[in-house]
Amino acid sequence: MSYSRKILQVLLMALPLHGISAKTAYMVLQNGRSLPASALAMEADKLVVKTAAEGYTLGQSFPLTMVDHIYGDKPVEINQAIALTLMGKPKEAQALLLPIVKEHHITAKFPGNFWLDAARALLVAYAINGNTDDTTKIGEEISDATPAHGIDSYVLLGKALTMPALTSKSEDRLAALRALTTQNLPDLCAYASFFYGNMLFKDKKSTEALEAYLAVPCLHPSGGLILNAAAELQAADLLAALGRPEEALALVESALSVSAGTVLADEASKRLTSLKK
Fold this sequence. Notes:
Structural class: mainly alpha
Distance between the termini: 63 Å
CATH superfamily of the largest domain: Tetratricopeptide repeat domain
Helix content: 55-70%
Number of strands: 6
CATH architecture of the largest domain: Alpha Horseshoe
Number of helices: 12
Strand order of the largest sheet: 2-1-6
Number of domains: 3
Order of helices and strands: HEEEEEEHHHHHHHHHHH
């Protein structure tokens, strides 16, 4: 039986690599061998071994095209950082994300990397905190890591979130976010819909805000469990205020079930206790 290269790649990515820790990001090569990403440095169009590992010697190099994919577990700090940003604590999120973005930067252009997740989350944290220059810089790095897509769509999200409230109309900021809810990236749509809901809530448009929050888990569920949980908690608050406690309780329980290990779980537990009184 013969397999196409693409099928073999999928099978290889699905198989566990024996003898290496999933907590460490590994570069898996076309020949099946692997090295810790931390043992490598990128120089132009090649990777150079800076720390001898897995049979490779100091100074040994190979072209970037030899890398098949990245193997390892997603850093748990990413979900916590996303939760912190959505809870209005972007500075705390930045503190968690910056080390990951730095450590995983060498993996940015290879399939299976977690740098892109961390970098996009950092862009949102910067934007929410009003760090326009940092938002622009990380946006450029993200676009550079995904050249096939041109300017990354998260750059547009960053611009929408950093539109100055004092010099731009609320309608313009709302329109910018609403336009992003129809993009092809589910997580981008989820972010845009969540922050669109926040703006509507701030403008005291509760019904429209509720629709925006519910769109996250209902229309863009694959955007991420943490985004779903944050939106469900926001929607639950609105439903409780509208005298619909049973629906609010169901959303809080849903949020609690998928947000373990993040501040959202703590918040969901508090609201669950409050609703059950």
